[in-house]
Amino acid sequence: MNKYVIILLTLTSICQSQNKDFERVYIEAGLVQPLGILSEKFEPSPSFGFWFRSRWIKKDCIDFGFNFFIPRQTSPIQFKYRDSVVEYKSKHFAINLGTRFVKIMPLSLKNDRFNLEWNSGFGLALNSYQAPAEIEFASAEYSQELLTTFYLSQGIKINYDNIGLQCHYQWSPYGLFNSQMLDKYGSQTLMLGIVYRQ
């Protein structure tokens, strides 16, 4: 019990040590544009994110959070199942969980709330697919495929007051850890969007 009290007091002191003008919560909305081979799997799709920021040193910060997108106009992908090939359809949900390291660069000498952010991120990327309903799976088998991989990202963001515009490039090698997938899935996306920070 004592360790939980200590952790709570530590987190409280960290929160109180932040400046009043330091935004901790970032809410994102935008569009994910698939690139290369991935553009054959789905069309530009809506994306939403939530990130919690902690100051590291001076103008450097760390963000923890997630963003998810809803793939539109998806194409089925082929998986090996026993001695046959089955086309799985998208469940129209993909999510990235991770962290971003952020460098903040002021763009005005008079107003530090007008700034540029450069960030590098990494984390876990998940994309879900479902087998056709007519296939009868054994009790120990799964009718769903969750493409799981890591991601690396680079992004830039321009903020003025509580609003920002951002652009992120992300590399997610979805097919790297799935030996059952026969298609080349692709790995590159570009995300454009707006940010509200509070």
What does this structure look like?
With 198 residues, the protein is mainly β. Strands 1-2-3-5-6-7-8-9 form an eight-stranded antiparallel beta barrel. The protein has a single domain, classed as Porin. It is elongated, with a radius of gyration of 20 Å. Strand 2 and strand 3 form a beta hairpin. About 3% of the residues have low confidence. 8% of the residues lie in helices and 58% in strands. The relative contact order is 0.20. The two termini are 32 Å apart. The protein has one helix and nine strands.
> Regarding CATH, which class?
Mainly Beta
Low-confidence stretches: 15-19
* CATH fold field value: Porin
Order of helices and strands: HEEEEEEEEE
The largest sheet is:
8 strands, antiparallel, barrel
Number of strands: 9
The total count of helices amounts to: 1
Shape: elongated
**Strands of the largest sheet, in order across it?**
1-2-3-5-6-7-8-9
Strand content is over 45%
CATH architecture: Beta Barrel
Mean pLDDT: 85
SS content category = mainly beta
Helical amount? under 10%
Task: Provide keyphrases for this structure.
198 residues, mainly beta, Porin, 58% strand
Summarize the structure.
The protein has 198 residues and is mostly beta strands. Helices cover 8% and strands 58% of the residues. The two termini are 32 Å apart.
Fold blueprint:
Layout (H helix, E strand, L loop, with lengths): L1 H16 L7 E11 L9 E13 L2 E10 L7 E5 L2 E23 L7 E17 L13 E17 L2 E9 L16 E10 L1
Antiparallel strand pairs: 1-2, 1-9, 2-3, 3-5, 4-5, 5-6, 6-7, 7-8, 8-9
